[in-house]
């Protein structure tokens, strides 16, 4: 299974806008199953982080994705994004 974690990426030290787009790409990767199984929770998590970092595109995609998720999945995704933001 392919995983793309930001701490393993050379781009992690780039500026805010570049990082936001990287996080958005990660969200799209999980949403579409590009190189990994589809994981809506992980997709929402990364799109949420990208939106927080300033990506308008990620905010729109996150909103669209949330309509396909259960309340439990949304809660899990929001928790995961919050946990990631507090540790990074």
TrEMBL record:
Superkingdom as given in the UniProt entry: Bacteria
InterPro entries (UniProt xref): TPR-like_helical_dom_sf
SUPFAM superfamilies per record: HCP-like (SSF81901)
Name of protein: Sel1 repeat family protein
Source organism (scientific name): Rhizobium helianthi
């Amino acid at each position: 299974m392919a995983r793309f974690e930001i701490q393993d990426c050379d781009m992690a030290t780039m500026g805010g806008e570049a990082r936001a787009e990287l996080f958005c790409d990660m969200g799209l990767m999980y949403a579409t199953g590009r190189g990994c199984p589809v994981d809506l929770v992980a997709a929402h998590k990364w799109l949420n982080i990208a939106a927080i970092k300033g990506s308008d595109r990620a905010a729109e995609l996150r909103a669209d994705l949330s309509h396909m998720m259960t309340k439990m999945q949304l809660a899990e995704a929001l928790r995961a994004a919050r946990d990631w933001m507090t540790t990074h």
